[in-house]
Amino acid sequence: MHKKTLSRRWLLSSALALAGWGVLHTGANAQARELAGARFEPAVNIAGSRLVLNGAGIRYKAIFKVYAAGLYAGTKANTLAAITAQSGPKRMHIVMLRDIDANELGRLFTRGIEENTTRAEFVALVPGTIKMSEIFSSRRKLSTGEYFDADWLPGTGLVVSVNGKPVGEPIKEPEFYNALLRIWLGQVPADFMLKDALLGIQASSSGTN
């Protein structure tokens, strides 16, 4: 075998080895984040797309921790407009930090949507809001440590999963998913500190293990 051929093969093998090391090295540096025991992976795969953790924080009611939430998107962004402009999948991952009545949580979400939309917009969102309420009313409560995902899947719609299992029918209108995001990222968010944390504007140190 010619020396030139051997040299090319050695260079190719070395390049592949270095590329593989680089991927492993990058993966090793990406660490999961924990908030009050709730774990948020640095990236997730949804419908064939890799989403990165945009930010995560804790929702407080008075002094009590209610849930930890993480926002996943195709690329990181620090405004609601930049998040909603992304055409690919998105995920809100919420982990309960205390027991809560599922119906109460559904009502809070409905109020959050209403407070961040005009009257005309809210009227148009009523069918989706009813479906969302039905999803939560199908459960008596969400217990500490349980979680749910609100995924936007292009071509399918909003899919809600509880503890990894889809619940109810998809809500197809993108307008409804954008309105849902405004619960946390809108002008009247559920928690202003949580909004900043989800948008990666500042780290949420409270409740970090």
Keyword list:
single chain; 209 residues; alpha+beta; seven-stranded antiparallel sheet; two-stranded antiparallel sheet; disordered C terminus
Quickly count the helices: 6
Percent range for helical residues?
40-55%
Structural class: alpha+beta
Order of strands across the widest beta sheet?
Answer: 3-4-5-6-9-10-11
- How is the biggest beta sheet arranged? 7 strands, antiparallel
Distance between the termini: 59 Å
Backbone shape: globular
The tally of strands reads: 11
The sequence of SSEs as H and E is: HEEEEEHEEHHEEEEHH
Rg over CA atoms, rounded to whole Å, is 21 Å
Unreliable stretches (pLDDT < 50, length at least 5) are 10-28, 204-209
How would you characterize this protein structure?
- With 209 residues, the protein is α+β, with helices and mostly antiparallel strands.
- Helix content is 40%, strand content 31%.
- The protein has helices at residues 3-29, 80-84, 102-115, 119-137, 174-185, 192-198; strands spanning 33-35, 38-40, 43-46, 49-61, 64-73, 90-96, 100-101, 141-142, 147-153, 157-162, 165-171.
- The strands form 3 sheets. A 7-stranded antiparallel sheet has the order 3-4-5-6-9-10-11.
- A hairpin with a 2-residue loop joins β1 and β2.
- α3 (102-115) runs antiparallel to α4 and α3 (102-115) crosses α5.
- The longest helix is centred in the N-terminal third of the chain and has 27 residues, at 3-29.
- It is globular and about 40 Å long.
- The protein starts with a helix and ends in an 11-residue tail after the last helix.
